Amino acid sequence: MRFSGLIVFLLAGLGSSARGAEIPGGSAMHFAGFGADTPGGRGGRILKVTNLNASGAGSLRAALESAGSRIVVFEVGGIIDWRKETVTITNGRLTLAGETAPSPGITIIRGSILVEAPDLIIRHIRVRLGDGGDLKTPNWAADSISTNGPKVKNVLFDHVSTSWSIDENLSLSGPREKDGTSSFVTIRNCIIAEGLDKSTHPKGPHSKGTLIHDFVHDVAIVGNFYAHDFNRNPFLKPNSTVFQANNLIYDPGSAAMHFAYVPNEYAVIPHPMLPPQLTSIGNVVRLGRSSAPRLTSAFIGVGKLYQRDNRFYDQTGALAWNGTSGDRRRLADEKVQMINEPMLAPKNFTPLPSSLTEAYVLKNAGARPKDRDSVDRRIVQDYRDRRGKVIDSQDEVGGYPKSAAAQRTLNVPENPMELDAWLANYLKAVEY
After folding, report:
1. In terms of pTM, does the model score above 0.90?
2. 2 has pLDDT over 60
3. CA distances from 220 to 27, 278, 351, 376, 407 (A)
4. How far apart, in whole angstroms, are the C-alpha atoms of residue 398 and residue 404?
5. Domain architecture of the chain: domains with CATH
6. Distance CA 135, CA 61 (A)
């Protein structure tokens, strides 16, 4: 177990404020495999982002679209407006080191990132898509961050904040083909919140957290805060495999964790449709203002589930399932197949007990947890106050963020070993 500090004692109950316990920092979620130990752009050239322009020399977009191994650092902090553009990363071996940006860090608005390459680390940035504001148009249906295709392998999203998406906030996808889609991906210490519901999606209401598409496999979802996403927290489609631990899921609408199994979707696919597999440990689900009365189970749909030490709180705040006992129907509906042993798990990782999940996530999740922006602070405080709801537009919660640009000069060491230590100092400044 790799904790940044010693746990003095376990919390007696989730309602505790965590006083008297030392809550581990983000390194408690570190492990091997599932893309979490990808080298990213280590050993590559340094690319400096020097302005907040949507494109052109010195922009983030130019760095993401560059070729070759690269580490992207920031001499500027503030808002980058992509004006409804999706920036696609097609060249791998990339580390996006958002922690190097001066406060308030980097926030992308009205735009999205699509990953179609291997060996990536994306950390300490915010992507707040929204409905486009003055650019709002019908049938716009973008994610904040998503992956696509078979080249996506060994990818880590760490300490990222995504919100106000039209489709999903952060999803892993690709063609419905065995070995033809994303795999070995970790989503860790992120805030995935407030997917827009009645917005511009052509399918109608569509507030979603995370979709794990058909055949996407070896995914780890750990230490994240899902808040006010109507469903897909996450949503597993056939033939997918996911390890899920120590996530806090607040105010789901119609479904918290959901399995898909739609036979007619496989009519033209030359592979058998197998139930998705989820190993779920130490997670906490708490219903809220937007949670439908029919949301009676934490896990729903046709899929295989190994679960241990998960907690489920109903609309009244009562503990309906405590990890081992309570109303079995509140844990999972009758279609879920319960498995007695974990189906997959990372190496060198022991999940925290669920009694620490709430405090851990509220401390560590999202971009720059030591330097949160007003949106992340509000989402965390709304949880503490049991407020907030599924929204239809970013304008309901203050609109797109605004901040002046901040600048600083970075003296980046050329030696890779020195560079690792140099980056570690910036990590310490923004995360616990």
Report:
1. yes
2. no
3. 15, 10, 12, 23, 35
4. 17
5. 26-430 (2.160.20.10)
6. 20
